[in-house]
Amino acid sequence: MKKFVICDDETFYLEKVKTLVQENLEKAGVTDVELYAFSSGTKLLEQEKLLAKCQAVFLDINMQDCSGLDIAFQIKQKNPDILLIFVTAYMDYVLAGYQAEAFRFLLKDDLEAMMRECILALLEKIDKVNASIFLEFSDGARNIRVKHILYVESFGHKLYFHMQGEAKKQHEMYGNLSDLEKRLREYGFCRVHKSYLVNMQFVESMKRYQITLTNGQFLPIPKDKFQWVREEYMKAMEEI
């Protein structure tokens, strides 16, 4: 069961956002979402167990008891996979909102028109974030979460899966990197080198002719592929 949170200190907008989210989920044929409403950002932060299981938070930027942006930064610090949708009467906070990794901005004066696209994009993003792939590894077949794959290395006739987070274990299998690339491309993976298929969300930085991953590791980029890889990197940054 998915969990969405709505937080706004104005009762009118709290109820309005909740109603619009529910209506658009029903239109999309989605029935496995629980909605939770809070009128205080401070009270929301106290709900650590709920936030740990939550997929999305609709958050008012301007609240009396606290700054919505401060709440957003604290939520993302502990729960980096949560998608933040800022609900605001002004667009002055867009830059700061993107620093908090905002997924969408919804204007309070235009909620009805903007909510439909937001919900559809949100559901698509959640599906990708939670996606798994079934693979035949040397020690047995299993599903692994796509978001846990840091990069895949090809050496000889084997593929080595370098993982991150709680799933920080290297898996190996016989296979072709080109075939795997076709399966993982839609999830933001890029073939930066003939031997490396990289999950672009874990690229910390990029310079000639290499990328640095979030774990501090460097991977080479061939000179003739550098421009293309840079363009793919920029696309990935826009989607994250």
Q: Keywords, please?
A:
240 residues; single chain; DNA-binding; 2 domains; Rossmann fold; five-stranded parallel β-sheet; five-stranded antiparallel β-sheet; 35% helix; 8 helices; alpha/beta; OB fold (Dihydrolipoamide Acetyltransferase, E2P)
Would you kindly provide a written description of the structure presented here, covering whatever features stand out?
- The structure is a single chain.
- The model has no long low-confidence stretch (mean pLDDT 88).
- The strands form four sheets. The protein has a five-stranded parallel beta sheet with strand order 2-1-3-4-5.
- Helices cover 35% and strands 33% of the residues.
- The chain contains eight helices and 15 strands.
- The chain is elongated and about 60 Å long.
- The protein folds into two domains: 2-129, Rossmann fold (3-Layer(aba) Sandwich); 132-239, LytTr DNA-binding domain (OB fold (Dihydrolipoamide Acetyltransferase, E2P), Beta Barrel).
- It is α/β, with parallel strands linked by helices.
- A hairpin with a 2-residue loop joins strand 13 and strand 14.
For this structure, what is the CATH class of the largest domain?
A: Alpha Beta
| Percentage of residues in helical conformation | 25-40%
Total number of distinct structural domains? 2
Spans of at least 5 consecutive residues whose pLDDT stays below 50 are none
- How many strands, what sense, and barrel or not for the largest sheet? 5 strands, parallel
Beta-strand content estimate = 25-35%
Structure classification: alpha/beta
What's the name of the CATH homologous superfamily of the largest domain? Response regulator
Radius of gyration from CA coordinates = 20 Å
At the fold tier of CATH, the topology name of the largest domain is: Rossmann fold
How far from one another are the termini?
Answer: 23 Å
Q: Write the CATH architecture name of the largest domain.
A: 3-Layer(aba) Sandwich
Tally the beta strands.
15
Protein name: Stage 0 sporulation protein A homolog
Organism: Candidatus Acetatifactor stercoripullorum
Keywords: DNA-binding, Phosphoprotein
GO molecular function: DNA binding; phosphorelay response regulator activity
